[in-house]
Amino acid sequence: MKAAILEQFNHPLTIKNLEIPTPQPNEVLVKVKASGLNPLDIKIQQGAAAHAQVALPAVPGIDMAGIIERPGDNVRSFKAGDEVFGMAGGIGKLQGTLAEYVSVDADLLALKPANLSFKQAAAIPLVFITAWQALANKGKVTFGQTVLVHGGAGGVGHVAVQLALAKGAGVFATVSHNNRELIESYGAIPIDYTRLSVEQYVNEYTDGLGFDLVLDTIGGSVLDDSFKAVKRNTGHVVSILGWGTHSLAPLSFRSATYSGVFTLYPLLSGEERASYGNILREATKLIEAGKLRPFVSSTHYTLETVNNAYADLANKSISGKIVVEI
Prior knowledge:
The chain has about 325 residues and is α/β, with parallel strands linked by helices.
């Protein structure tokens, strides 16, 4: 099979021929149709993602959608010919998805939404799993709450906005002026962070009370802003990039709470992988019900042009999720 290989950090990927993997018990061999890229893929290529524990040479790529070629022993949940998607590899010692085939733990997969193409489906797994963990598992989002999503037009952000809306929350999202229409098209309220300070938009949109649930998808100073934007006593902040050093004083003075999300852990540890297949089944339900749609770039990339895809993602020169079709 053809596969993209990362042989040195901070170098382009190369295309090589590898042996098609053999599925182990509880794995399925998947013919990959599309591989979705995420900012983490860029950090891995640059050698700036020690937490991903990738050892070179490696096949990168975390997300994928494809067709099951052959189930391994003990797999009863899928059969040959099933169309599936999942956050499947590219982390630790797991082969990534920028290849014609990948052998995947069946627990990590779910049936692809029938109303999405392979390209669209490959844009979903990591961002949806992260958004679900943040809002549903950690944030316990419920009907009628006010939810603020920082970075609402980003990969995790645009999915989180739609997920919170599907849960019946009133949703606000910080975005630049250029992304107002995208957020409005989902039914949420855009907040131009370049025009308003935290104090100003908390006053304008919550009468100074703060938001019930705040999701930080950016980290750094935005997490500090989140501590100032959350509601007193009952509010909760969740961050997917809470890795820096921060003062907890603003959060403590509001008597609010905080949670962090580390989406890679089940792939690295082997623990709780079935939870990811279950979360993706929730994604399929929402997508097939018309409550969630991915924002995918129309630009066409293949294995042969994979370095162009990486460059465009790194330069942020393309709108929408970048997906490599295989």
